[in-house]
Structure formats: C-alpha cells, structure tokens
Amino acid sequence: MTMEVTGSWIVRQSVGSTPCLLGKSVDCSYVRGAGYLEVDVDIGSSAVANGVLGLVFGVVTTLVVDMAFLIQANTYEELPEQVIGAARLAHVEPAAAIVPQDLTPPPPALADDDNAAASSSEDDHLSKKTN
C-alpha cells in the first residue's frame, strides 16, 4: 500500500509516504471468492497504527489520502506486481457514517415465466426484512 497525505505537518510526519506491507504491520484476514479478494484489516492490532489513527482522527476532515493496493510478489513468476485498486479519501466526515442495514445480495434474476410463480414468495421475503 502506498499513501500520499495532504494535511498538517504533524500528520504528514507521523504517517509518511513510504509504501508499507500492510499484512506485516497489522493483522489481516483474507477471503478469496470467484472474481474477488476481500481483505479485512484490523487496525487495532498494532499499537503504532492505533496511535497514528488517534492522531489522524481528530483532523480527518482536513485530510486527503491517496492509497494504492497491490499483492506482493514472493517469486519471480509472480512479477511484475500490478496495482489492483486505488482509493482517495478526501475530507472524510465520520459523523456522517451510517451502518448498512442489509448487505444481503439480491436474488438472481428470474426468467419471465418464473416471475409470476416467484412473485408471492418474493413479496413474503420483502415483508420480512427489518431495518
């Protein structure tokens, strides 16, 4: 992961801009599925990361952080490494965060002749959702 930080001098000095191996700095768990890789990062698993987070959290609304992610190559055959994703976090407002109510994916689309038969069961499913 590489980061570029725009913010106060103290934050820039604390966070830096040198790439880090995230999996060696904090605990991570990985879920690999068809067409995706999920990485859950436990920032609280590192005293250093927790300290930086505490410093940054107070000024997070003034920061712009650019991050790029790649999977580290461990063998010659895995080269060249390529960026698999990037994100810019700009002026994040923690107070505006919401907890998602339902992360269940929608059911797969049905063929037209199946729609009539599934309509009543779909209505039952929708009526049982809680928010």
Concise structural overview:
Residues 122-131 have a biased composition (Basic and acidic residues). The chain has one domain.
Helix content, binned percent? 25-40%
Specify the structural class. alpha+beta
Describe the strand arrangement of the main beta sheet, using strand numbers: 1-4-5
* Strand coverage percent: 25-35%
Structural key phrases:
4 helices; 29% helix; 131 residues; 26% strand
Report on this structure.
With 131 residues, the chain is an alpha+beta fold. It has one domain. 29% of the residues lie in helices and 26% in strands. It has a 3-stranded antiparallel sheet, with helices on one face. A two-stranded antiparallel ribbon has the order 2-3. The protein is globular and about 55 Å long.
Q: What is the topology?
A:
Layout: E1 2-6, H1 9-15, H2 22-25, E2 27-33, E3 36-42, H3 47-57, E4 64-70, E5 83-90, H4 112-127
Antiparallel strand pairs: 1-4, 2-3, 4-5
Biased composition (Basic and acidic residues): 122-131
InterPro entries: EDR2-like, EDR2_C
Pfam family, one: EDR2_C
